[in-house]
Specification:
With about 250 residues, the chain is an all-beta fold. It folds into two domains: about 5-40 and about 65-90 and about 180-250, Pnp Oxidase, Chain A, CATH 2.30.110; about 95-170, no CATH class. Helices cover about 5% and strands about 50% of the residues. The protein has one helix and 17 strands. The chain has one helix at about 75-85; strands at about 5-15, 25, 30-45, 55-70, 85-95, 95-100, 105, 115, 120-130, 140-145, 150, 165-170, 175-180, 185-195, 200-215, 230-235, 245-250. The strands form four sheets. Strands 1, 2, 3, 4, 14, 15, 16 and 17 form an eight-stranded antiparallel β-sheet that branches. Strands 6, 7, 9 and 12 form a four-stranded antiparallel β-sheet that branches. β14 and β15 (about 200-215) form a beta hairpin.
């Protein structure tokens, strides 16, 4: 006897190279949608005889492509790289100091922020180009130490276009940089480790080679949790005979 199906599952996402080479599967966070839709087309032949005009006298069902849609609700750098058709590059700013004898030079733009060249700043000292005048934070300038940006104030003593000598310390900063638009081919091997909550039976859905693209914009200021929605088609890998497989375990 057939059972109803109320499914849950964990999604393993293996982003393939453009040539289809596996990079290893990563267990994703919350996945709220994983939908397959095989298409087919029915070709019909209609009669024009006295007694069968407009009636179907022959039909053939032709197989078509299989569409896939999935929604990820927890994002990391790898997922965002997929959303922006890019890659992930790890980077680091090692900790260190900017010596007053060899300061970083910044050209002041009044009431506008200018990047200093280092992030995570502390113990910052700002002087004029001759190192004669030491400017006062909050009076002559405002510093954003986390981003490493400085704004010369028009109400202070710094002149527009003046060269500022900046010294101080900077912290170690580790990050992952997403290079948007550098890898437009998104291919993936997808494995859903599923379970039917009606009867407790396990199931597994394997999509061997999906061609994916983002289907919605990524709004970093959304009022709700940010989803990543992808859609595409399932391909049959070279040497295989099926694009996907569903295994419904007996227990």
């Amino acid at each position: 006897m057939a059972d109803s199906f109320l499914g849950a599952g964990d999604l393993y996402f293996d982003r393939l190279t453009a040539a289809g080479v596996s990079q290893g599967a990563k267990l994703e966070g919350a996945c709220s949608a994983f939908a397959l839709n095989p298409e087919s087309e029915i070709k019909e032949q209609t009669g024009k005889g006295r007694t069968n005009y407009g009636q179907v006298i022959a039909a053939a069902t032709l197989p078509g492509k299989t569409n896939i849609k999935l929604t990820l609700n927890q994002l990391d750098a790898d997922n965002l790289a997929v959303a922006f058709l890019g890659d992930v590059v790890s980077g680091q700013q090692a900790s260190g100091s900017i010596d007053a004898g060899t300061p970083l030079e910044v050209v002041a733009i009044l009431d506008r922020y200018v990047e200093i060249g280092k992030e995570g700043l502390s113990n910052v000292v700002v002087k004029d180009a001759t190192d004669t005048t030491t400017y006062v934070a909050g009076t002559d300038y405002i510093l954003n130490p986390r981003l490493g940006m400085i704004k010369a104030l028009s109400t202070g003593s710094i002149l527009a276009g003046a060269t500022l000598n900046v010294s101080g310390d900077y912290a170690e900063v580790n990050y992952q940089q997403i290079t948007g638009g550098t890898s437009p081919i998104i291919r993936a091997r997808l494995l859903l480790d599923g379970k039917n909550y009606v009867n407790g039976r396990n199931c597994k859905v394997l999509v061997k080679n999906a061609r994916l693209k983002p289907s919605t914009e990524v709004d970093f200021l959304s009022d709700d949790f940010l989803p990543l929605e992808l859609e595409g088609v399932c391909e049959i890998p070279e040497g295989d005979t099926t694009a996907f497989e569903i295994i419904y375990y007996d227990a």
